[in-house]
Design goal:
Blueprint lengths: L8 H8 L3 E2 L8 E5 L11 H13 L7 E9 L9 E10 L3 E10 L2 E11 L24 H5 L5 H8 L3 E5 L15 E8 L7 H11 L6 H4 L12 E4 L1 E6 L9 E11 L2 E10 L4 E12 L2 H27 L1
Antiparallel strand pairs: 1-2, 2-4, 3-6, 3-10, 4-5, 5-6, 7-8, 8-11, 9-13, 10-13, 11-12, 12-13
Helix pairs in contact: 2-5
Length: 321
C-alpha cells in the first residue's frame, strides 16, 4: 500500500471517538455504540477503550463541566473484530461536580469499568512540579516510522504507520532491544500527526488514548526487557488519570514516566504529561502485569538484589569514612 492510499491515522482516531447513541429502550444506563476499526492482532488497544468510555460518559454531562479525573479497571481483553457497547450510569450531579460510571461491553460482559468525575470551571491555588530540564527537542529524535518502517512485519508496520500519535523516545526505544540505562524511567514526546478540532472534550479523550502508550516501559527498562522478549506477557490492569489544565494533543507533549515498584508479577508506573512550554497538563498512574519466564525472573531478581546491595555498601562506606 502506497503512502498516498494509506488511511489518515488522525481521521481514524476521530472516527473511533465518534460514538453513536443506541436507539430503543434504556435501563439505568445510557447506551452508546461504536464499530470496530481494523488493527493488527485481535486485542483492542487499552487506550482506545479508555478514550471511548470517557467520550460516552462526557455525552451525559453538561458541556461546561470538563473531565478532571478517571479511574478504570481492564477486566477482559477486548476483541478488535467485534463492536463495543458503552453503558453510562449517572451517579451524581452536584453544584460543581458530576460523577459517571461507564462500562465497555463485548459479548454481554464488561471489558472495562470506569468512574469519571467532571467539574465546572473554578479558581483556586496554583502550583506544579516543573518539567525536567535538558530534554532534547522532538524534531531531533527519530520517529517510530524511522525506526520500524523498514521491518516487513504487520505489527511493526502498524506501529510505524497506523498509530494516530507520533511517538519519539528520549532514550533508546524498546521495540526490538533494550540498550539504554537500566533505570526505571522512560520519556517520550508525542502528538497527533494531523490537526484536531478545537474541542477540549476531544483533546482530553485523545490524551487518555495516548496515555496508555509506553507507560509500562518504565517497568521493563531496569530489567533489560524489550517488547519482543520471548515468552514475556504484559497487560494493563488498571488506569488512573487526572487532567490539570487544558490540553492540545496536536502540539508536542512530553510524557515523563517512572516505576516506583515492581513485585508479584505486577509493576506500577506513573507519568506526568507536560506541554512544550512546561505546563503540567495531566498525571497518570497504571499497574501492569509483567510475567517473564521463571529462569529469567530468577536471574533478574538476583541482579536487582546485587545492585541494591552494592548501593547500600557504597552508602555505608561513605558514612564510615
Amino acid at each position: 500500500m502506497s503512502a498516498e492510499s494509506m488511511p489518515d491515522p488522525t481521521l481514524t482516531l476521530l472516527d473511533l471517538l465518534d460514538l453513536s447513541e443506541a436507539q430503543g429502550a434504556q435501563t439505568d444506563e445510557e447506551i452508546f455504540v461504536t464499530t470496530p476499526v481494523k488493527q493488527p492482532g485481535r486485542r483492542v488497544f487499552g487506550g482506545q477503550v479508555l478514550a471511548q468510555s470517557l467520550v460516552a460518559a462526557i455525552r451525559t454531562v453538561e458541556p461546561t463541566r470538563e473531565v478532571h479525573s478517571m479511574h478504570g479497571y481492564f477486566l477482559r481483553a477486548g476483541d478488535a473484530q467485534l463492536p463495543i457497547t458503552f453503558g453510562v450510569q449517572r451517579l451524581r450531579d452536584g453544584r460543581s461536580f458530576s460523577a459517571r460510571r461507564a462500562h465497555a461491553y463485548q459479548n454481554g460482559v464488561p471489558i472495562l469499568s470506569m468512574i469519571a468525575s467532571f467539574q465546572e470551571p473554578d479558581d483556586g491555588v496554583i502550583h506544579q512540579e516543573p518539567m525536567p530540564a535538558d530534554i532534547p527537542d522532538p524534531e531531533s529524535l527519530p520517529s517510530t516510522a524511522d525506526l520500524l518502517g523498514g521491518f516487513d512485519h504487520p505489527v511493526a508496520r502498524a506501529w510505524a504507520f497506523d498509530r494516530p500519535f507520533d511517538i519519539r523516545h528520549i532514550d533508546s526505544p524498546l521495540y526490538v532491544e533494550n540498550t539504554g540505562a537500566r533505570e526505571p524511567v522512560n520519556a517520550v514526546w508525542m502528538k497527533t500527526f494531523g490537526p484536531m478540532p478545537d474541542d477540549q472534550t476531544i483533546h482530553r479523550a485523545a490524551l487518555a488514548y495516548a496515555s496508555d502508550y509506553t507507560l509500562l516501559e518504565s517497568i521493563l527498562r531496569p530489567h533489560g526487557l524489550s517488547w519482543i522478549q520471548p515468552r514475556m506477557s504484559v497487560a494493563s490492569l488498571d488506569h488512573a488519570m487526572w487532567w490539570h489544565r487544558p490540553v492540545r494533543v496536536d502540539e508536542w507533549l512530553l510524557y515523563v514516566q517512572e516505576s516506583p515498584s515492581a513485585s508479584g508479577a505486577r509493576g506500577l508506573a506513573t507519568g506526568k504529561i507536560y506541554s512544550r512550554t512546561g505546563e503540567l497538563l495531566a498525571t497518570v498512574a497504571q499497574e501492569g502485569m509483567v510475567r517473564v519466564p521463571t529462569d529469567m525472573g530468577s536471574k533478574m531478581k538476583g541482579a536487582v538484589q546485587k545492585k541494591l546491595m552494592d548501593q547500600k555498601m557504597k552508602r555505608w562506606s561513605g558514612k564510615s569514612t
